[in-house]
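Could you help me review a protein record that somebody else here produced? What it holds is a sequence and that sequence's fold in token form. I have pasted the whole thing underneath without changing anything:
=====
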Amino acid sequence: MRHNKKRGMKLGTDASHTKAMKKSLIRALFENDRIKTLDQRAKAVRGDVDKVITWAKKGDIASRRLAIAKVGDKELVREVFEKAAQGMWADRNGGYTRIMKLGPRKGDAAEVVILELVTEPVTPKAAPKAKVTKVEAAPVEEAAPAEEKDAE
């Protein structure tokens, strides 16, 4: 895969075909909530999907117009904006997509993945407990009784 600094991955095609392919993949993902595609294509589309959802969470008219330009379907953008307004991604600050690897394709060994929208709520990670080692704990416990013996 060639990489163009301004536009990102070329995906083996010219710029207009890459743009059309990305638009088609984004549309399919929002319609079906999950698509099976190649790894490089999924990685190339993931950022654009996250942008559209971020615009949907913002919800103003400028964001809606940007999303329509990116997706190319007014009705689909309306549905995405409604989902965002209902709080589907309210507790999530990014990472709206998940890529699960399926393995190599039989014909050409290209890496096939499932790209899906993440819909479950964020579960906060538990705070790590402070580690107390035996070396640190031993002197503290022994020092207290020694002081009491001196006081008697």
